[in-house]
Design a protein that fits this description.
With 211 residues, this protein is α/β, with parallel strands linked by helices. It has a single domain, classed as Isochorismatase-like (Rossmann fold), CATH 3.40.50. It is built from 10 helices and 6 strands. It has a 6-stranded parallel sheet, with helices on both faces. The N and C termini lie far apart (42 Å).
Length: 211
């Protein structure tokens, strides 16, 4: 997959793997570029998306016994069948042989990736994976960092390297493709429950007796 085709080919539930990078409780506390409550909801929306679609999933942590803390328990609860990988040294998850092997073993070349913090835990493996031929979707609203300036710098650097910067709702819509798809209703309900503004749209629709 080269040239413009790499940017045009759509995500599907058959060609993608989800990588949750260092969504740890200690790191979550320090995120200030997005409201922490909204960030947590977006992270869990992405996790539920992976579960609904039965995407191969890899979840990592970095020095979980230190100040970074453990992986958010809601992620473990939502994705009990994910492959969990703890790193004790490597800052860039792509430098972890176990993480890289877990991605390779899925046989999939599109990686839906999110992480805390955006400018390290997400950016470094996203750029590294692209350099090795993977098509990475960096889900920016399910990632967080210290402030907006740092986030924007990370977005620019990832974009320059060929990483696709996305949102969790756009990933959901791209994979769903059609409201009439087998998972359309379930995915629509997920979007309604996690995106307040879309929930209001649905509430208004159902209030008028539609179903």
């Amino acid at each position: 997959m080269t040239g413009s085709n790499r940017f045009a080919e759509r995500l599907t539930s058959e060609n993608a793997v989800f990588a949750s990078i260092d969504h740890q409780t200690g790191l979550l506390v320090g995120c200030r570029d997005i409201d922490p409550t909204v960030l947590k909801s977006n992270i869990l929306g992405l996790a539920h998306l992976a579960r609904i679609l039965d995407l191969p999933t890899v979840v990592t942590s970095s020095v979980a016994t230190g100040p970074n803390g453990p992986v958010m328990p809601e992620i473990s609860d939502t994705l009990p069948d994910a492959r969990f990988i703890g790193r004790d040294g490597e800052i860039n998850a792509w430098d972890s042989p176990e993480f890289k092997r877990a991605i390779e073993e899925t046989g999939r070349k599109k990686i839906i990736m999110a992480g805390i913090v955006t400018d390290v835990c997400l950016m470094f493996p996203a750029i590294s994976a692209v350099a090795e031929g993977y098509d990475v979707y960096a889900v920016i609203d399910a990632s967080g960092t210290w402030d907006a300036a740092i986030r924007d710098a990370a977005v620019h650097r990832m974009s320059q390297a060929g990483v696709k910067v996305a949102t969790w709702a756009s990933v959901l819509a791209e994979i769903m493709g059609d409201w009439r798809s087998p998972k359309g209703r379930e995915l629509g309900e997920l979007m309604s429950s996690r995106l307040t503004s879309y929930g209001w749209v649905v509430d208004g629709f159902t209030a008028h007796g539609a179903s």
